[in-house]
């Protein structure tokens, strides 16, 4: 198939248009707009530094626009420079310079502004400016501003804000900077001054105490801490004083103690407060009748200084009140048991003799009950004790002594009837000591003489002849006015003396027996007892004498001579009177009949001559045999 013929394509190429010329007023308008914009931006900044910074950045943007204008002009004119291009280029450089100047000057200007603010006392704004300012000394300036800011707030009594400022100024980034350290230390001082203000001006000790506690907890200022503790203790003591005034003594004591426990100090500082609290506490319990607890609170370990005297008086009052209660209940035993040691300890403080009086009454009442029951020992014991407590009461003392005298008399009679003569005598004597009333003296002496006589008889019956003899003689010596008893005592003497001598003789106490026999002969020779004693002294009997050598061996076949008496001469002893010769048997003994009260000297043969062996008295019926140790020298021996 044949294609139809087509007409030829005609291409029309349009003629290139020339770019329009940029009017000269365009760059100038840009400059005007830029300057107006910069002015507006600068003026709308927060401050000069911010305005400069903002203007700098706007200048930079405008400089960019100028560069763009320069490039557009360059493209359109296809030439490197033209008037407009040159204008854009110059403007770009100009605005770059302005922008750089604005941006670079913002930080120093912030610092300058901060210095000005700090000088004006606008520390908050100064801190803001320092943070935007130059880095050099920034931390120092900020810490210093916080410190000064806090000081100003503290001066204006804005304590909480001051503490916030000090805390900000003592942040870790400011550690080691003097102003930062001062700010840290000032926190404690701020708490302290806050507490002082609350305590002194607002009269709010509870809140002040909280601030003092905050001072201590903060721990940044040792001087402030010491002062805070002192002030806190003062508040605590005031609280304790209020509790004390309200009669809450237990709370007051605990509060006073907490002042030391919480805020330090020495226990001795508490003594005046503890002392007055326990004293008042004890007195309150005393008025309530709780004597036991009152005495516990009045323990002298709590007393301090001048309070000691008040404690002692209160203790006396406490024991007195308790004693009166027990006396009213007739509970004498408990009263005496309680008040006796109390009087010993505190009697010297009892100026009104209250304890003495109560003890005296209780003892007299107890003694009266015992007297009614004829319990003489108990009655006497109570009355005698009562005497020690009523010494200042003449009438009571006289009555007690009369009671005691009568009681001893009755008790003595009771002992006499029980044949307890020795104790009866002592009791009668005590009776006379308590009440030496002349009309009663004769009766006392009769009772005493009778008791001594019956006692002597009792001793004689029990073969205690020496003590019996002593009692009879005492009656004769001290009670000559008691004729009946002295006659009987005199008649009893030879009888008792002979019985005593015989007893000594039976007990082989020959020397004392002979003494008593001789006394009988000398004093009562005409009596039957005297004659009996004389016969005993003159009687003779066999006496066996045994002679031993130095080793205790009997000497048999020894020739012995006894001389009735010897006379001492310059040459020794010479025999006088009778002489008797004996030879010892195989047992070393010989027997001789001797008469009492004769002196003999025994000799024995030595080397063909007599040697003196021994000398002595020979009471006949005292020793049945005597062992002699034969020696070359003489020795004294009691021969039978």
Automatic annotation (TrEMBL):
Keyword check for Membrane: yes
Keywords assigned by UniProt, alphabetized: Membrane, Repeat, TPR repeat, Transmembrane, Transmembrane helix
Membrane spanning stretches: 24-43, 55-74, 86-104
Entry annotated with the keyword Amino-acid biosynthesis: no
Gene3D superfamilies: Immunoglobulins (2.60.40.10), Tetratricopeptide repeat domain (1.25.40.10)
Repeat (TPR) residue spans along the chain: 405-438
The name this protein goes by in its record: Tetratricopeptide repeat protein
């Amino acid at each position: 198939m044949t294609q139809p013929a087509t007409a030829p394509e005609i291409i029309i190429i349009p003629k290139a248009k020339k770019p329009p010329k940029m009017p000269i007023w365009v760059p100038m308008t840009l400059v005007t707009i830029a300057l107006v914009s910069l002015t507006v931006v600068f003026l709308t900044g927060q401050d000069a530094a911010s305005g400069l910074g903002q203007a700098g950045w706007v200048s930079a943007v405008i400089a960019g626009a100028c560069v763009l204008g320069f490039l557009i002009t360059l493209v359109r004119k296809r030439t490197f420079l033209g008037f407009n291009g040159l204008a854009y280029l110059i403007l770009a450089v100009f605005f770059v310079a302005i922008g750089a100047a604005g941006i670079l000057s913002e930080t120093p200007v912030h610092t300058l502004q901060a210095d000005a603010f700090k000088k004006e006392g606008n520390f908050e704004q100064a801190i803001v400016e320092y943070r935007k300012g130059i880095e050099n000394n920034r931390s120092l300036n900020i810490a210093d501003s916080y410190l000064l800011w806090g000081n100003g707030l503290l001066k204006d009594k804005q304590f909480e804000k001051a503490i916030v400022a000090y805390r900000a100024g003592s942040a870790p980034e400011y550690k080691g900077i003097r102003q930062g350290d001062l700010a840290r230390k000032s926190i404690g001082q701020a708490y302290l001054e806050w507490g002082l203000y609350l305590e002194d001006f607002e009269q709010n000790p509870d809140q002040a105490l909280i601030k003092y506690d905050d001072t201590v907890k903060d721990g940044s200022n040792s001087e402030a801490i010491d002062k805070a503790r002192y002030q806190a203790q003062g508040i605590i003591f005031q609280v304790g004083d209020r509790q004390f005034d309200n009669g809450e003594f237990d709370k007051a004591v605990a509060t006073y103690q907490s002042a030391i426990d919480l805020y330090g100090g020495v226990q001795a500082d508490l003594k005046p407060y503890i002392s007055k609290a326990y004293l008042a506490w004890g007195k309150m319990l005393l008025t309530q009748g709780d004597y036991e607890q009152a005495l516990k609170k009045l323990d002298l370990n709590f007393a301090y200084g001048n309070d000691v005297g008040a404690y002692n008086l209160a203790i006396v009052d406490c024991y007195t009140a308790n004693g009166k209660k027990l006396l009213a209940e007739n509970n004498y035993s408990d009263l005496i048991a309680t008040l006796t040691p109390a009087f010993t300890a505190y009697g010297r403080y009892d100026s009104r003799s209250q304890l003495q009086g109560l003890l005296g009454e209780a003892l007299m009442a107890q003694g009266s009950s015992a007297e009614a029951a004829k319990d003489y020992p108990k009655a006497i014991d109570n009355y005698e004790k009562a005497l020690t407590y009523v010494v200042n009461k003449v009438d009571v003392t006289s009555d007690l002594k009369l009671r005691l005298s009568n009681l001893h008399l009755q008790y003595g009679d009771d002992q006499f009837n029980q044949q307890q003569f020795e104790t009866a005598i002592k009791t009668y004597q005590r009776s006379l000591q308590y009440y030496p009333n002349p009309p009663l003296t004769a009766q006392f002496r009769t009772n005493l003489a009778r008791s001594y006589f019956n006692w002597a008889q009792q001793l004689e019956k029990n073969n205690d002849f020496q003590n019996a003899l002593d009692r009879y003689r005492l009656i004769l010596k001290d009670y000559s006015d008691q004729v009946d008893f002295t006659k009987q005592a005199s008649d009893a003497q030879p009888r008792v003396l002979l019985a005593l001598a015989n007893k000594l003789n039976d007990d082989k106490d020959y020397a004392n027996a002979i003494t008593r026999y001789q006394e009988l002969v000398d004093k009562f020779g005409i009596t039957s007892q005297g004659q009996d004693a004389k016969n005993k002294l003159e009687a003779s009997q066999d006496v066996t004498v045994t002679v031993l050598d130095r080793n205790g061996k009997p000497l048999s076949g020894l020739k012995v001579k006894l001389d009735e008496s010897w006379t001492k001469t310059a040459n020794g002893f010479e025999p006088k009177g009778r002489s008797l010769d004996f030879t010892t048997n195989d047992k070393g003994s010989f027997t001789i009949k001797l008469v009492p009260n004769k002196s003999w000297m025994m000799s024995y043969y030595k080397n063909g001559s007599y040697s003196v062996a021994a000398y002595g008295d020979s009471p006949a019926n005292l020793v049945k045999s005597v062992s002699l140790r034969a020696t070359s020298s003489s020795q004294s021996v009691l021969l039978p």
